[in-house]
Specification:
It is a single chain. With 226 residues, this protein is of the alpha/beta class. Helices cover 41% and strands 12% of the residues. Helix 7 runs parallel beside helix 8. The chain is globular.
């Protein structure tokens, strides 16, 4: 029996075991398999391991998407996590090449995936509070939001979760250095039923603007002189 002789249900089941590249390759072989590739039922779950993968055409975004994760575990993440004013020209050039990639993708998710239930972001150093705010507004069924090592996330995201995360059951903000204890306590107060976790976040050193940092350094020098 040839694979194309299988019914639609069997083909969907077969495709579900394949990664995105394999699905795309198989879809190129004939029109019937292309139709299976384009079936929304196949795309309820998407996992990405680097920003580059978001630009490929080996997946479909649509209302069927329920579970999304973008987790970048790489030494390059450390470059993205450096405060902008401290980056050298090489580091700035590196970040400029991809700094909007994840945000642009998430904006597409806002517009096309209103039924999203779970979002996990790790190592996405350029994602901002505004982006998460839009997601919470446009994906009202979001139950799980896990943010790890997303350095631009602040208490504004926590506030947005209390205002627009009516369906939230789980909220993680691990290793997000600009989250404060005050922001966490506010979430616990306003949303006591939400399972909140913030490993290390409120204990990390937050970003400082150049002016503020210089003032602190001057104050330290004066204390030493005294």
């Amino acid at each position: 029996m040839h694979i194309t002789q299988l019914n639609r249900e069997c083909l969907l089941h077969l495709f579900s075991f394949l990664d995105k590249n394999s699905r795309k390759s198989l879809a190129k072989t004939c029109h019937k398999l292309l139709e299976v590739f384009q079936d929304p039922l196949l795309w309820s779950l998407l996992n990405f391991h680097s920003p580059v993968e978001l630009k490929k055409d080996n997946f479909l975004l649509g209302p069927a998407l329920k579970y999304l994760s973008i987790c970048w575990y790489s030494e390059r993440v450390k470059v993205c996590n450096i405060e902008d004013w401290m980056k050298n020209s090489f580091q700035k050039d590196f970040c400029n090449r991809h700094e909007n990639t994840v945000t642009d993708f998430l904006l597409e998710v806002c517009n096309r995936c209103p039924n999203l239930l779970s979002l996990t972001l790790s190592g996405c150093g350029h994602v901002t509070d505004d982006c998460i705010l839009l997601l919470l507004k446009n994906c009202p069924n979001l139950r799980t939001l896990k943010l790890e090592n997303c350095v631009r996330i602040t208490d504004q995201t926590l506030e947005a979760a209390t205002l627009y995360g009516s369906s939230l059951q789980t909220l993680h903000v691990d290793f997000c250095r600009n989250i404060t204890q005050t922001g966490l306590e506010r979430v616990r107060e306003k949303c006591p039923s939400v399972m909140l976790r913030a490993e290390r976040s409120a204990n990390m050193i937050p970003d400082n603007k150049p002016g503020k940092k210089l003032m602190l350094e001057k104050a330290s020098r004066k204390l030493v002189q005294l």
